[in-house]
Specification:
Largest sheet: 4 strands, antiparallel
Radius of gyration: 31 Å
Structural class: alpha+beta
Number of helices: 11
Shape: elongated
Mean pLDDT: 90
Strand order of the largest sheet: 1-6-2-3
Strand content: 5-15%
Oligomer: single chain
Low-confidence stretches: none
Number of strands: 6
Length: 359
C-alpha cells in the first residue's frame, strides 16, 4: 500500500515537472510577444466630448486664456488612466482664424524658451482651438480590437499585461520572436525582465520543489523495491535542483563583477550536467533491474527512457565540447538553449508514463 502511494505521487510529480516548466518557458515567450505586438494605448481624456463623429468642443482664444496656450488648455490634453477609456474615433485638434481651419500651431504662434506666444498680427483676429471627433477609427483604442477587448474585460492577467505595457517596459526585444527556430534572444534575457520575471520565476521555484520531491520519491521507491539505500542519482538530482534555484535567484541581477558572472555560468553548466548525470544513473539502474521492475513499469517506456537519456547524454557532451572549442553565432547558441530546455523536460514526461497503476 505504501509503495503504491509513493508510485502514484511520483507519477503526478513527474507530470507536473513536465507541465509547469513547459508553461513557464512557453508562457514567458507568449507574454513577451503579446507585449511587443500590442499597439493599444491609453488615449486622451475627453470628458467634454461624445465619441460620435462630428461632435466638437470649441475654445475661443483671447488674452484672458493666453490665446489658448499654457495652462488654459491643460484640460484638453489629459490622459485616461485606463486603456478601455479611449475613444473609438480619432479626436483631432484644429486651430482656426476667422473660420479658416487650415492653420498649424506654428503658423499662429511663436515658440520662445519652450513657450508658445501668439504672433502680433493675429492678436485682434477671431482665433479658435477646436477638439473634433473625426470619422476615422482610432487604431490604438482597444475597443476597435474585438478579441483583445474581450480578453481585457474578462481575463485579468491579460488586462494586467496591457496596463503594464503603458509604463514603457524594457523587454528582451522590441519585436515578436520565435527563438526555437531563429534564436533572436536568450532565455535569460527574455525572462529576467518585468513583468515576465514574476511569471517565470514563480513557476520555476515551484519546479525546484517538485524536482527535490521527484528525486526523493525515486530514492524511496528504490529502497522499497531493491532495498538499496545508496543511490547516487539522488545526490546529482538534488544538486541539479539546488543549482537551478541559485540560477533563478540571481536571474535579472546586474553586476560587473566578473567573479559573479563566472559563478552564474558555472551554476547553469552544473545544473545541466547534474540533471543529465542523475537521469543517466537512474535510467541505468532501471535497465539493469528491468526484470524486477516489470511488475511496476511498462517495459516499452523504460527502454524509451534509457535510449532517450543515452542520446541526450551524448548530445550534451558533444555540444559542450563544441561550444568550448568553436565560437558559434549567438543565435545558434540561443536556438540550442531554448530547444534543450524543452528536451530536458521530456525526462519527466517519460517518468510519468513509465509507471503502472499498482493496487
Amino acid at each position: 500500500m505504501i509503495l503504491s502511494k509513493t508510485i502514484a505521487k511520483l507519477k503526478i510529480n513527474s507530470f507536473l515537472l513536465f507541465l509547469i516548466p513547459t508553461i513557464a518557458i512557453l508562457g514567458s515567450l507568449l507574454i513577451h510577444n503579446i507585449l511587443v505586438s500590442s499597439n493599444v494605448q491609453v488615449g486622451g481624456k475627453y470628458s467634454f466630448l461624445t465619441d460620435i463623429p462630428g461632435n466638437e468642443h470649441i475654445m475661443n482664444c483671447s488674452e484672458d486664456n493666453n490665446y489658448c496656450t499654457g495652462k488654459s488648455t491643460d484640460y484638453l490634453n489629459e490622459s485616461s488612466t485606463n486603456i478601455d477609456e479611449c475613444f473609438i474615433y480619432k479626436v483631432k485638434e484644429i486651430r482656426s482664424i476667422n473660420g479658416n481651419e487650415n492653420y498649424l500651431q506654428s503658423d499662429i504662434y511663436n515658440l520662445v524658451n519652450s513657450k508658445w506666444s501668439i504672433k502680433k498680427k493675429y492678436i485682434n483676429e477671431k482665433i479658435q482651438l477646436k477638439k473634433r471627433v473625426s470619422d476615422q477609427k482610432n487604431k490604438t483604442c482597444i475597443k476597435n480590437h474585438t478579441t483583445k477587448y474581450f480578453f481585457y474585460k474578462y481575463f485579468p492577467p491579460y488586462s494586467f499585461l496591457l496596463n503594464e505595457k503603458q509604463k514603457d517596459l524594457t523587454l528582451g526585444s522590441s519585436f515578436v520572436v520565435n527563438p526555437f527556430l531563429y534564436g533572436e534572444v536568450s532565455i535569460s534575457n527574455l525572462v529576467k525582465r518585468y513583468p515576465i520575471n514574476i511569471f517565470f520565476k514563480s513557476l520555476l521555484y515551484i519546479g525546484v520543489i517538485l524536482m527535490i520531491m521527484y528525486w526523493y520519491g525515486y530514492n524511496k521507491i528504490f529502497k522499497q523495491i531493491l532495498n538499496n539505500d545508496k543511490n547516487i542519482f539522488l545526490f546529482f538530482g538534488v544538486g541539479s535542483a539546488l543549482c537551478l534555484f541559485i540560477h533563478i535567484y540571481f536571474l535579472g541581477t546586474t553586476s560587473n563583477n566578473e567573479i559573479l558572472k563566472d559563478f552564474r555560468r558555472i551554476v547553469i553548466v552544473l545544473f545541466i550536467l547534474f540533471e543529465v548525470f542523475a537521469q543517466s544513473l537512474l535510467a541505468y539502474k532501471l535497465y539493469i533491474n528491468k526484470n524486477v521492475f516489470l511488475k511496476y513499469c511498462f517495459n516499452l517506456f523504460v527502454l524509451t527512457k534509457v535510449i532517450f537519456v543515452s542520446i541526450v547524454l551524448i548530445f550534451t557532451t558533444t555540444v559542450l565540447i563544441m561550444l568550448s572549442i568553436f565560437n558559434f553565432p549567438n543565435n545558434i547558441e540561443y536556438i540550442l538553449e531554448w530547444n534543450y530546455f524543452i528536451i530536458l523536460l521530456v525526462f519527466y514526461l517519460l517518468s510519468g508514463l513509465m509507471w503502472k497503476k499498482i493496487n
